[in-house]
Amino acid sequence: MKIRSSFGERCFDVANVAILTLTCILVLLPLMHVVAGSLSATNALIHSQVTIWPVGFNFDNYVLVFRNGTFWQAFGITFIVVALGTLLNMLLTVFTGYPLSKPYLKGRKPFMVFVIFTMIFQAPMIPSYLLVKELGMINSIWALIIPGALSAFNLILCITFFRSLPEELFEAARVDGMSEYRIVWQITLPLSMPIMVTLTLFYAVAHWNNYYSALLYITDAHLRPLQLYLYMLLAQFDTSDSRAHMGSLNTWDVSPQGLQMATIIVATVPILLIYPFVQKHFIKGAMLGSLKE
Amino acid sequence: MDTRHVAAATPKSTSGAKLARTAKFVFRNRALYIMLLPGMLYFLVFKYFPLLGSVIAFQDYNIFKGFWNSEWVGFKWFEQFLSYPNLNRLLTNTLIISFYQIVFTFPAPILLAVLLNELRSMRFKRVVQTVLYLPHFLSWTIVFGFAYMLLSVQTGFVNQAIQALGGEPVSFLQKAEYFRTIIISSGIWKEMGWSAIIFLAAIAGISPSLYEAARIDGAGRFKQFVHITLPGMLPAIMILLLLKIGHILDLGFEQIYLFLNPLTLSTGDVLDTYAYRVGILGGKYSLTTAIGLFKSVIGFLLLVAANRASKATTGEGLY
């Protein structure tokens, strides 16, 4: 398509590309700065010589992170929560989503209203906290898993996908004497791999990033997940934990900033690694979600 | 199985044929209802119970007496909250940050979607989208970490730039006057790209024939934008704006809590962070539940009012 564009329009095109390029740089800048800092020599770092390229390249900060027991403890908690939490999420989402995707299910509409209502009127903070407390889950890893066991938003994404599967297929399986449970397991799931991947990643990223539940329900330092550990590392220099780091500074010749930067990057890398694979799935999800609203 | 007997017995005991048919359906498809049970139970317990639990705002909730036996005190907590000396500060901070969010954070993705839509190179567009969607997937803790490092007095990029230009380094995160700017800019940094998706979808939904007709009539790209793209985006813009107005007192606790420190309380302490400190850490459950309820009621009223205003002026509304 060749359209004659005016001088003004050509100017706009150039400015547009420039603005968007600048925006991209601004978004990437903090990431590059922290990566560079985490890989730099302490001297260069504390003398403000590091911008977006490492000065005196070395891995000392990362060695220190990976030698730290508290880090591994927090990482372990997060790992368990991501694994167990996502598994529970997927089981509940699939088994709740399957019946709700059947247009002939009696009571389908009230059930859907029941679900959607929770998206509009969100559970308030204090009563949720008291509920978890009454259930005896304070300072237990279950507090990070059970209260977020099912997401109404993801459930609706799942239902929308299941509804696109041809009902004749299920009918045929039923005629062959398959139980509904086996139909879910052997027919629905294999046909729904794209949405299963999307939802698994949605849930896993949410668990990885979650610090709110831990802030509310976890007071025991041994049960802190990675995100909360990172926050404590950044915000509270006077905890015994960071004093332990400070104590080892002399032997390792690293600055607390370098260590903090390396910890930030370690917490970011898993997201960066899966991002290219999930981007298009996530966007599909976001579009579906916007249609539902 | 127990359910089987109950379901089978129902048709005989009721006269209504419709009810009998329903019971028969439920019995025949009991597997579907059994599958539904855990999920529905989850929503009931973790979403509906806390909503009902909001009644402790009208009680003198005592953790030992529990929900059922605590004393009723009417509007005592609301009165106490409304006469709280620092209420003014809390409300002002909340409303100012919310106002900034509507003025700066809200239009950013709209503008971005428009700019992306005007790009001629699809490859460049995809690259920009890939970069700008990324921060959405990072947690607020990590975003706080980035901001913390970028603004650090000793090593931060921003202070390096200030010093290079001959200025004195500033400890931005410890200064109350910068708090709101930091909240707004980090919010835009994280969510601008992702929020643009909805507006891009709205633009994609505009019929190409409209643009063709406009071109035949001699409209340039700017005119096409004003008369076709913008009106095409309006429904999406209005719906999201209305939802934002309904949440005017919810600013995103997760973000603000991380950035807040004792030195920035004067400009950054909002209703949610106060509720967390006094409620969860201080144990004043009833008082802070009252604050939560107050927020919801105000939000709901504003939403209804804004919806009415929007319907009268633009014809768009949520319901």
Automatic annotation (TrEMBL), chain A:
CDD domains on file: TM_PBP2 (cd06261)
Domain of life, per lineage: Bacteria
Residue ranges occupied by any ABC transmembrane type-1 domain in the UniProt entry: 75-278
Membrane topology qualifier: Multi-pass membrane protein
Transmembrane segments: 12-32, 71-98, 110-129, 141-162, 183-206, 258-278
Keyword terms, alphabetized: Cell membrane, Membrane, Transmembrane, Transmembrane helix, Transport
Record bears the keyword Membrane: yes
Compartments in which it is found: Cell membrane
Pfam families the record matches: BPD_transp_1
Name this protein carries in UniProt: Protein LplC
Organism: Paenibacillus cisolokensis
The organism's taxonomic lineage, starting at the top: Bacteria, Bacillati, Bacillota, Bacilli, Bacillales
UniProtKB/TrEMBL annotation, chain B:
Keywords from the named record: Membrane, Transmembrane, Transmembrane helix, Transport
Pfam families attached to this UniProt entry: BPD_transp_1 (PF00528)
Every ABC transmembrane type-1 domain range: 91-306
rRNA-binding is among the record's keywords: no
Membrane spanning residue stretches: 31-49, 95-119, 131-151, 194-213, 225-249, 285-306
Localization annotation: Cell membrane; Membrane
InterPro entries: MetI-like, MetI-like_sf
Topology in membrane: Multi-pass membrane protein
Similarity field: Belongs to the binding-protein-dependent transport system permease family.
PANTHER family (alphabetical): POLYGALACTURONAN_RHAMNOGALACTURONAN TRANSPORT SYSTEM PERMEASE PROTEIN YTEP, PROTEIN LPLB
Protein name: Protein LplB
Lineage of origin: Bacteria, Bacillati, Bacillota, Bacilli, Bacillales
Gene that produces this protein: lplB_2
